[in-house]
Each structure stands twice: as C-alpha cells, then as structure tokens.
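Q: Sequence in, structure out?
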Amino acid sequence: MKKIFIVTGEPSGDKLASIVVSKLKIKNPDIKYLSVGGSHLKKLRIDSIFDLKDITYLGFTNVLLNIFKIKNKINKTVDEIIKFDPDILFSVDSPDFTLRVAEKVKKINKNIKTIHYVAPQVWIWRKNRVKKIKKFIDHMLLLFNFEKKYFDEENIKNSFVGHPLIEKQDNIKTTLDNLISKDRKIISLFPGSRKSETNVLLPILIDFIKLMNEKNLDHSFVFHATDENKEFIINKIKNTDLDNIDVVSDENIKDQVLSSSIFAVSKSGTISLQISSANIPSIIIYKLSFINFMLFKFLVNVKFANIINIINDKEVIPELLQEECNADEIYKTVTYFLKNPELITKQLIDCEKTLEGIKSKSSSSSEAALILNNYLIS
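A: Exactly. Output:
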C-alpha cells in the first residue's frame, strides 16, 4: 500500500490539505496516511502525531521565544516520518515549519518524494530561499501563476494549480433561520485561526460591535471560528452583554453565512480570497507587536498586506494595520462603505477581475491531487 505523510503548520494549511486529500481519496482510495494536522484532516480519519496548536506561533518574537519547542517538534516530526517511511511527504504552507521538516527528511531518505503546496512568498521577502529549496523539494505546487518565474529561474519543478479557496464548493445547504434572525443584516468577522491573532483582534472586534450597536441594532455579527478556537471566542463573548453575536465553525454553515453577509471584516490572509470569491465587500485588519512590525517592514518587498492589493499594486480592499487597527477606524470604514454602495460595487468589480486572472483552468484541488497520484503510480 502506498503511503503519504502530510505536514501542515496551522489550521488554514490543514484545511487546504484536506480539500486536496478528499479529491485524492476519490482517485486512489488505497493510500495510507499520517499527518501533522488539525480538525479538517481528522474529519477525513487521518491521525495527527500531535496537536496542531503546539506549533502555531505568530510573529518573529513568538517564534524566538518558542524556538526550542519548535525545534523539538521538527525533530519529532522528522523521526515519525522516517519511521512511517512514506512514498510522498506532502507539506502544506507554513514554510518555517514544514520546509524545515522536508529538508531534514530529504537528507535522511532521498527516496521520499517531497511535494510542497503553497509556495513560500519569495516575491514578498527572502527571495534567496529558492536556491536552498531546490536541494530538497521535488515539486512545488503554486497558487498564483506569477510565482512560476521565481522557481523556473532555479529549475525547480513546479505547477500552477490555482487557489482552492476560490473554487466553488459543493456544500450541503443548511438553514440559517435558527442561527440568525431574518430581520437582521449579517456582518461576518474573521479574527484569525491562530490564538495569538485572536487574542489581539477579538477585543478590537468586540469594541467595534459595541460602536455599531450604539447607532442601530439591525445587524447580526458572526465570528467565523475554527474548531480549535471556537470555545475561546465563545468564552470571551460571554463576558459581554452583547446579544447579536454568533460563533460558527462548521465549514458549510460558515460558507452560507458569508454568502448571506452584507460585509466582512477580516484579518489579513488567504481568507480574503474566499471572501472576494463569495462576492462580499470587505476590509482587512491586522496588528503585530511593535518589534514584529518593524522587522516585517524592514524585510518585506511589498507595499500591501492583502494579496488582492499586492496583485493590483493599489488598495482595492482597505487595510487597517497597526495603529489604524482599532474599533473606531473599523467602525468609520465599514459604515462609510455601507453608506456609499458605489464604493462596494467598485471593490467587487475589481476583485472579480483579479480573481479571474489567478484562477486555474480546472479545479485547483483536483490538479494537486492528480500530481500527487501521478507520483504514486509512476
């Protein structure tokens, strides 16, 4: 029986991996899996060697403070991979963890094929990483076509497969009547999947909701959570007197809530592509510690945080970062958009054009699954 070990580093990577593996299971059901994964892979009955939250750290300082824990987890992961002896090591996103694992594995066993999904953003910072990656990655699966040139330059085998989060998913329809009142307009809130993100953004978003409620009570606010941080968010909300907040973690319900929303406030990240794909107007928020932000500004090569804005080289989706990431600014920006529907229309048109330019010709997850299967049968 063929074997694949899946390595992810955070819930978003776990979700991406699960979408691909669900397609691969259809193509080739006779595969044995083991992983470093989370709730999404668990739903596919794929065991994880440890809890994903043990390696999910945000920012340079948090990584430095936990460097020995991370090194320990890398070494343990490598040991378990070598013991499992897979045909393929399928690493997904989180390059500071997953690629370090892949590098060590390749040094020990060159026969294990290493396929990485979601290329490190070398076009933003640390472009010289590509030369190093060449030594231990057999195939790079790219989300964006413009990334190809960076890997072609070093003759690294790569394929543009597109982004699965902008694919149309065949979700089971679920009624939202028991969750949200029909007479309230929904605003979707995305505080992040990492606890370190949620710790910072959740209090700001709760204060934003309080400001919105002062003006009118026509809105219902829905936090899009992960299975890992849902209880944390619920417990924080319990300490408020707000009664127009819901928290959802089921993927089908989250998709339907989003498609029924009039607006979204999201942390910076790939989730913004999913929001744009759902044709929902949005703004981006993010906040790092002062040290992490200064290091980020020093190292990166782009002006924007959001991928839609980076591609367009202009602010299509407003970004409220650092000191601008506060309840007052979020309130002002959201209400300004809601009062000026022409701004919403322009954002949605620009986003639609951008998404058309980065979509693959077929299903991204199917393309990735096909490449994995080809390695297994070759």
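The chain has a mean pLDDT of 89.
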